[in-house]
Amino acid sequence: MSVKRPGIDDIETRVVQTNALAKDDLELVHQLFDVSYRQANHAYLEKSFSRLRYIAIATVGNTPVGFAVADVVETSLPRMSGPQVVNLAGICCVAPEFRRMGLFRRLEGLAADASGVSRAGKRVLVCGRMAHPASFRTISRSPAVIPKYGVPLSDWQKEVGLRVAGLYGVNIDPETMVVIGDGVPIGYPLIEQEVTEEEWLPFRAVNRDRGDSLLGITWSPDAPKGW
Hints:
By secondary structure, this protein is an alpha+beta fold. The protein has helices at residues 23-36, 42-48, 103-113, 133-140, 155-168, 197-200, and strands at 12-17, 37-38, 54-60, 63-75, 84-94, 124-130, 172-173, 178-179, 188-189, 213-220. The strands form two sheets. It has an eight-stranded mixed beta sheet with strand order 1-3-4-5-6-10-8-7, sandwiched between helices. It has a two-stranded antiparallel ribbon with strand order 2-9. Strand 4 (63-75) and strand 5 form a beta hairpin. The protein contains six helices and ten strands.
């Protein structure tokens, strides 16, 4: 007799402020982080909570199946007039048996929506620190994405990258958009996705042993003139 595998409709979600995570929730998040990363660095994860205000958590019954950290802010950006909407994606981990169900995007969206900053009808700067080319794949298809391997960044793009790095509370090499680590690994993603040699190219300067990642940035639905 076969047992029905839980589906997307069986998943319950909730959003919690990162500065109000209960001990049980933190243990749940650590459990998922450990499933998704070899040598998962809990201190790195918790440091991100000081910058990104919301975490969406998914469970099936009492079993944790995913979480995503994110925030949306309105802030000034170099060479742009008025406040701009900036979507800051953080770590997202989904249990292996629940991947490829759209849960990643669903959780990121819930955490971002909790900020209360409207993105409807607005141009949004979409940002994320990427641990693996598979994570970069979605936004790398955007014509406005930076970095692109072999394409030098403009002074404006470097300035925006530095501003976004400040929002995340990290240091970057503005020439490559590599987020410089603290000297210890974040963790090594346990991902079973095929990645092409071309997709690895933007990550050539990323030193995972040092705790580096890649800051990816794009605009939605389109980039401002001159980008």
